[in-house]
Automatic annotation (TrEMBL):
Keywords: Membrane, Transmembrane, Transmembrane helix. Coiled coil: none annotated. This is Lysine exporter LysO family protein. It comes from Photobacterium pectinilyticum. It comes from the Bacteria. The chain crosses the membrane at residues 6-29, 36-55, 61-83, 110-131, 137-154, 166-188, 203-226, 233-255, 275-297.
Amino acid sequence: MFSGMLYIFLPLIIGYFITINKPAVLAFINTQTSRLVLVILTLMGLSLAGLDNIGQNLNQILTYTLVFFLMISACNLLALPVLDKLMPTETAHGHQTLPLRDMILESLKLIVVVAGGLIVGLMTGIELGWVDQASEVILLLLLFLIGIQLRNSGMTLKQILLNKKGIIIALTIIATSLPGGLIAAWLLDLPYNQGLAMASGFGWYSLAGILIGDSLGPVMGGAAFLNELLRELVALSLIPMMISRYPSTAIGYAGATAMDFTLPVIQNCGGIRCVPIAIVSGFILSLLVPVLMLFFLSL
């Protein structure tokens, strides 16, 4: 059962033990990681094109996305405001205006990439038997590079352990997302381990879609991708409105993206005091996405 998990997880572990001190090398790795994500999302679109009854499958993807998004978000948002009452965080109320439109368009670009792969597959009628194997090879390389990124993110174990708020927020997201995934799986009549795996993306849409798609097929992979992408888009909209009164809620709902993509929004809208909390919470969730997801997929 765990042999397949170890096979996929091993590149991530190897990458995590590699320390890189040259900024130019790290910048190159970051660039290649972004490119590989685009390539593998294109392959996801091609995989969808190879499905029979494509219209019915797209409807199923949207149904899965909506149910998982609503159940997981509801569970998160029921608990996170309690943290704001128990652990108040001082924020800066005079926040700056951010180009949210540009950031949202950047996220939507990924949907266009998947759609582009789907359209190419449908219109050209090319043979698609090679897509799954190519996706698996690129996935292993991508996990290796992600391991390097996590290891060289600048976070030390001491910094993580000393930030109790960030740890508590991350644990709250985990503890509330998993029941949300179980409820969604029950509503959709899916195996419980698939529901738990779908709930373990924590906003990391590219990796979630890739890992789920590699294990459960393009329908579930597409649903996982859209579910986490929708979470990020909603977070980008909620953070400016909520962070002054509910900073833990705003940071927590951003999930794994709190340490990177949504961090500028958190910093500018909530102030510098929110930054270490967001980085620690986002880092813990980012580190646990592949761990939890691969574990649940192996059950």
